[in-house]
Amino acid sequence: MRKRLAMLLVCAGMLSLLAVPTAAAKSVYFTAVNENILELKEETMPFWSGQNLYVDSAIFSDRWLGLYCNRNRVNGTVVILETSGQRRALVFELDTGYVTGSDGNNYYPAAVQRNGQVFVPAGVVADYFGLTYNNIRVDHGFLIWIHSANATVSLLTAQEFANAASYQMTARYQKYLQSREAGEEENGGEAEDPSAAVTGKTLNLCFRMGTEEHAREILDVLGRNGANATFYLTAQEIRTAPDTVRHIAVAGHRIGILLTGTGAAPAELREANEALFLACGGKTRLCAAEKGVEGKAESLRQAGYCLLIPKVDGSVRGLYTGSAESLFQTAQNSRGSVTVWLGESVSAEGLQRFLTLASDARDRILGMTERDG
Prior knowledge:
With 373 residues, the chain is an alpha/beta fold. It contains 11 helices and 21 strands. It has helices at residues 2-15, 122-129, 158-164, 166-187, 212-224, 235-240, 242-250, 265-280, 297-302, 324-332, 348-360; strands at residues 28-33, 36-37, 47-49, 52-56, 67-72, 77-82, 89-93, 99-101, 106-107, 112-114, 117-121, 132-138, 141-147, 202-208, 230-233, 254-259, 286-289, 306-307, 312-313, 338-343, 364-366. The strands form 4 sheets. Strands 14, 15, 16, 17, 18, 19, 20 and 21 form an 8-stranded parallel beta sheet that branches. Strands 5-6-7-8-9 form a 5-stranded antiparallel beta sheet, with helices on one face. A hairpin with a 2-residue loop joins strand 1 and strand 2 (36-37). Helix 1 runs parallel beside helix 3, helix 1 runs parallel beside helix 4 and helix 5 runs parallel beside helix 11. The two termini are 30 Å apart.
């Protein structure tokens, strides 16, 4: 059955292949809803904001997902609701930034308006309505695949679907390039690339929360320097320190789940996410592992999670005043964006020294996103 599904997708894509334009384009984000690769347009392309992935809200008006999306311009809301079953609804208030479910709970982050469209956080909508959401690296960029559990293509793994849909994506990409070329000719020059003037490196600092007192010290240093990071917590830590969890989230940092290996990974992730939701109204797809769980990276990725695999492990030596410079230099010598795992072996003074060096080098200190895994 899987092979047949894959072949059907491949054949559909081959029929739509076009001549390849000569111009190159920046990395793009494809969107797929169940088996359909949606048209690739600049104004509706997924994007990252506040370290969350946003998708065009209109894609949730899909009868195969069992959802309907309604934008009310008068009262400034976007409502995504189920067309059958429990008829749950998620209301995004555009003016206030509130996100409310029909279950009476509040969710975050808020919707974003861009290019006349309303974009919503993909993870929030997928989690609320029980959809599966994958972020897959593909040729020319990434594929955001959202599908329901009863969709026929749900039999495929994320990578199998991406491989089978490669021809469809190539066709969409070629059409997108042709559209960009036409726009450049009309404007009398090249289209502006907003990412053209970026300097320095991107450093993703990852901490284990440790004690609440230690976490507050680290949060204070990050806040003074305008830096973002990712904190990994076990389910037990989330349950016992909800105030600190809320402090981390409100300060704009990312939260990940630390797998201890004491039970099955899916059960640990589910338990931790339930505790996280109770603490701050959100869930996460980021996770890190101890005790040999690292070998399950592929299975976790297929389940929609992003397992931390750092380029630089600074947890053994630690980040202290005496080691800050050498650790910073190790990160600088690594290629591309650099994920640095620090665990809880960090002093406030050492972190301040590291951030000062990063500022001098014009580096960006950001929290993890799913594309960094």
